[in-house]
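Page 37, continued from 36.
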C-alpha cells in the first residue's frame, strides 16, 4: 500500500495515477493529507496536477 510521498514518487515513475482504484486514491489522499498537514512533506506539484486531471476525468468536479 502506498502511504508516503516517497512511495508515490517511486510509483509515479512507472504507472499512471488513473490506473488506481478509487479506494486506493482515497487511501493515498488521506495518508498524504495528514503528512502534509503536519508539515512532514511538501505537496509535490506533479501530484496536484495529476490529481486535478484524475478528478476531472472521473467527473467529480
Amino acid at each position: 500500500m502506498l502511504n508516503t510521498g516517497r512511495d508515490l514518487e517511486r510509483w509515479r515513475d512507472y504507472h499512471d495515477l488513473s490506473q488506481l482504484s478509487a479506494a486506493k486514491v482515497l487511501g493515498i489522499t488521506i495518508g498524504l493529507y495528514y503528512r502534509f498537514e503536519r508539515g512532514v512533506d511538501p505537496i509535490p506539484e506533479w501530484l496536484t496536477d495529476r490529481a486535478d486531471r484524475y478528478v476531472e476525468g472521473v467527473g467529480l468536479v
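The chain has a mean pLDDT of 65. Flag for discussion at group meeting. The chain has one domain: 5-58.
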